[in-house]
Structure formats: C-alpha cells, structure tokens
Amino acid sequence: MTQLFSVRGFSKHFGAVAALEDVDFEVEAGEVVALVGDNGAGKSTLIKALSGIQPADEGEAFFDGEPVSLKSPQDASTLGIATVYQDLALSDNLDVVANLFLGREIVTSRIDPRLDETTMEERSTDLLSTLSVHLRSLRAVAGSLSGGQRQSVAIARSLLGDPRVVLLDEPTAALGVAQTAQVLDLIKRLRERGLGVVVISHNLADVFQVADRIVVLRLGRRVGTFDRTASQDRVVSAITGVEVEEEAK
Ligand SMILES: Nc1ncnc2c1ncn2[C@@H]1O[C@H](COP(=O)(O)OP(=O)(O)OP(=O)(O)O)[C@@H](O)[C@H]1O
Ligand SMILES: [Mg+2]
Q: Which of 25, 43, 204 to mutate to test the pocket of ligand 1 (most atoms within 8 A of CB)?
C-alpha cells in the first residue's frame, strides 16, 4: 500500500537552535499517530513544517507516493492537509455556523451574492451530527461554548475542505476530563473516516487511548517509535532520554 503522507530528512534551524534535525515522519490513511516529546522537542515546529506554515529548511515530502512541495500553507491545503492549532482561531462573536464557514461562505447567487444561511446551517447540522458533536444551538456565539465544544467546532471546521490528513497541535490541552474524552472520541471518528491523523499531546494516557503509533521527538530528533502495546515507561524513557528500566532487572 502506498503511504499517504511522509517526509524525509526534515530539518529546521533557528539561528544556532536545531528545532528539527533530519526527521522522517509518516502517516497512513486511517491511522492516528501521536507526536510526543518534552517542551521544546520540536513537535510544533514539525507540525508547522508539515502544514507549510513554516517550511523546513531541508528535506523531502511525499503524498500518495509522489514527491510534493510543502513551501506554503497553500501547498498543504491543496494536497488535503488541514491543521488545527492550539489557539483555535474561532471568532468568539460569531456563531457556530459562521465560524464553520469562515472564509468559505456559501452564497445564494453570483449576481446578487447573499449568504446562503439555510444551506450553511443544514451542512453544519450534517457535519456535526456525523461527528457526534452535540451543541445546544448552532446559532450560539463561539464565545459561549465550552473548551471541548470549541475544540470540536475547530476540528469540524478543518473537515469542510475534505482533507485527507488532519494535524492537531495539543487538541486536549486545557480541557477537563469529559471534554477531553469528547475530543478523543472525535479523533477516533476521523480515523474511521479514513483520514490520516497526527496529534500532539503531553498526556500519555490520552495518547495510549487514541494512537495507533507513537513517535517521540527529543531535542529535534526522532528518537523512538512505539505501537500502542508499548509500555508507558519505555515511552517516557524515550521522551526524557533517561533509562528507567535499569533497576528493574
Ligand atoms: N520561531 C522561532 N524562533 C526561534 N526559535 C524557535 C522558534 N520556534 C521554535 N523555536 C525553538 O525550537 C525548539 C522547538 O520548539 P517547538 O515549539 O517545536 O517545541 P514543542 O515540542 O512544540 O514544545 P512544547 O511542548 O513546549 O509546545 C525550541 O527550542 C524553540 O525555542
Ligand atoms: Mg508546541
């Protein structure tokens, strides 16, 4: 099977800091890959490189087995790579429908363009219900939603462009237990839809709940790859660079 999306030898330097050093990364269709590592390990830098926001200095990218360019956000979105950042970019004073369709509004006619609220509302209802996202009202302003609801709307919005890969930078940071569960469920549904999903998280319990594979970065390098049956201790070792199993022998 051809790999959906992969990069090879990605490097990114900020002055003397090597934020990424010769990193290979890959995600398949219908797979959730967790990207983990300590603060400053290079996770966000990798996501930004994969989404073309802050292109890598070096390296090659492949989509459906073909070499591709990832030099701009436009490159990524044309390929079908969508990104949800931690600062969700919802507009607090706009309602859910307006947020979902922000920048891709549907209009009634080209001659006398007016927002087609009915169609946008119907599509919003469909989209959120296929994702099992329950909101009291689609006409509630985003500012009135809970953190988990906001995150769900932000993720739903990324799906409107029909992406094949979704990159999520810490989607559960700052969420409570129930809200986190809601977002993890949503991630599982993205996998069921056959999307390739990359998710950054600091919470290993979340990671083990949702990920098919775990990739560890440390100081800009990829230092470990684990499947979901790996022990949490081994993943922690890779993250910290400290061998924890020595004494258990
Ligand atoms: N725009 C920038 N200018 C200078 N240095 C940067 C820039 N962006 C990232 N870095 C540096 O690159 C390294 C990796 O940062 P990055 O944000 O990718 O880490 P991270 O793994 O996402 O960490 P966290 O878990 O804290 O979000 C850090 O040393 C950081 O200081
Ligand atoms: Mg980060």
A: 43
